[in-house]
Design a protein that fits this description.
Blueprint: H1 3-6, E1 10-19, E2 24-31, E3 37-44, E4 48-55, E5 58-66, E6 71-75, E7 78-80, H2 87-99, E8 101-102, E9 105-113, E10 122-129, E11 132-133, E12 144-149, H3 151-160, H4 166-181
Parallel strand pairs: 4-10
Antiparallel strand pairs: 1-2, 2-3, 4-5, 4-7, 5-6, 5-12, 8-11, 9-10
Helix pairs in contact: 3-4
Organism: Paenibacillus sedimenti
GO molecular function: hydrolase activity
Pfam families: NUDIX
Length: about 180
């Protein structure tokens, strides 16, 4: 028996609870590996992209208010995948919408799950270099400010709690590694 099958939970029944514009919530009734049953509350998400935009040894970030946290956060540009959209195309779109920058030098860094204990959201992380300035076009309900910060400023923002989301912290560490090794 393979390791992933050893711990598999078999879905017996799914109860849809909520369907919104971005997420949906369901309760799955599952059979556990020992034959017992349990429930799992699951947030379904279409997936997202995030971009590490590098320009002149600085990283372009955006600051915006995050209602669930009741505070502003400094983050790398990011957004959800539209239906049928390829992650690379979404990354290019989000980069330009939020920062005004475009790039033809974009490389996939990693894809990771944000909270696998209760959500299926996956973020595809890219690095963009040789940026070309254009004009930002944020969504009508997006209010943000763009800034170019040094690695040292990013590290200080993490210590101060201005950067506290996982994708941006991961981006800062990936950027630090890139500066040290030349590889990301």
């Amino acid at each position: 028996m393979t390791a992933h099958k050893k711990f598999e939970e078999i879905t017996l029944r799914t109860e849809p609870i909520f369907k919104g514009k971005i997420i949906s919530l369901q309760v799955d009734h599952v059979q556990l590996p020992n034959g017992e049953t349990a429930t799992r509350e699951i947030v379904k998400h279409p997936g997202a992209v995030a971009v590490i935009p590098l320009l002149d040894d600085k990283m372009i970030v955006v600051e915006q208010y995050r209602k669930p946290l009741e505070k502003s956060q400094v983050e790398i540009p990011a957004g959800k995948l539209d239906a049928g959209e390829e992650p690379l195309q979404a990354a290019l779109r989000e980069l330009e919408e939020e920062t005004g920058y475009r790039s033809e030098h974009v490389k996939h860094v990693s894809s990771f799950y944000t909270s696998p204990g209760f959500a299926d959201e996956i973020i595809h992380l890219y690095v963009a270099e040789q940026l070309i300035k254009g004009e930002a076009r944020p969504d009508e309900d997006e209010f943000l400010e763009c800034e170019a910060i040094t690695l040292e400023e990013a590290q200080q923002y993490i210590r101060d709690g201005r950067i506290s989301d996982a994708k941006t912290i991961m981006a800062v560490y990936a950027w630090q590694l890139y500066r040290l090794t030349g590889q990301i």
